[in-house]
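Researcher: Can you fold this with zinc ion in place?
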Amino acid sequence: MKAPFIIDAHVHTGFMNGFFAEETDAASLVRRMDSLGIAVSVNLCDMISITRGPASGVPALIEDFEHSDGRIYYCGTFDPGRGTEDLRYLEKILGQPGFRGIKIHPPWHKVSADSHSYEPVWKFAADNDLVLVSHTWSYSSYNPAQALSLPGLFEGWIKKYPKTRFLMTHAGGRGDGHAQAVRLASDYENVYLDCAGDIYIPDLFVKLEKLADGGKIMFGSDWPMMDPRAHMSHIMLAGIPAGSKLKVLRTNAVNLYRLPV
Ligand SMILES: [Zn+2]
């Protein structure tokens, strides 16, 4: 396969708030994708959408999709603190070709993942056959709010909405959070993981080979905070068959997001 084929299932563009990043615009992302053989990326939203809602942030993501010739897909966001206001905007963009799912972020919004206030977004994702994406992480002494996104907190929702494709980003972080995320992705048909961020677990992709083959884990970088080459090289150099690497680098994300590529 010579043409660019890699899908980066976890990038960001735009305002980064407190996170340090030097190349935050979509044009920089496209240049970086071209230099690394990445065909398509999925933008798990900008910080404007997270902090002020999708009506404020998503119009720029729609422009990025158009200006990149359809190479940067995007998710909208839902903040339980705004109730259904965010869903009213997402309803308006249903059917837009770049719109692929909804991102929730329990630590940022300071609402635990098992709170009843997430019911409207689980129902909306189910009713509209959209991917629901959440930040997930482990206990953190320096960032206690991460405990609001421990993977086990989602299990009640996963049982209630078994047909909804649910992506746990960062594969649950490290330690116990990671173990919980792997268990859920193994036990439930529609639970998926990405490897985005600084989860540099030795032999991660060898340990998760069965999940890779089953379509459950995919490459994501967390660009522009992280260099995509970190996990790309971990995957390419992993001691797993080429077919499994192709699934992680491309096929699993194509199937999860139903990308027309
Ligand atoms: Zn991210």
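Model: Folded with zinc ion in place. The beta strands are 6-11, 38-43, 72-77, 99-104, 131-135, 166-169, 191-194, 217-218.
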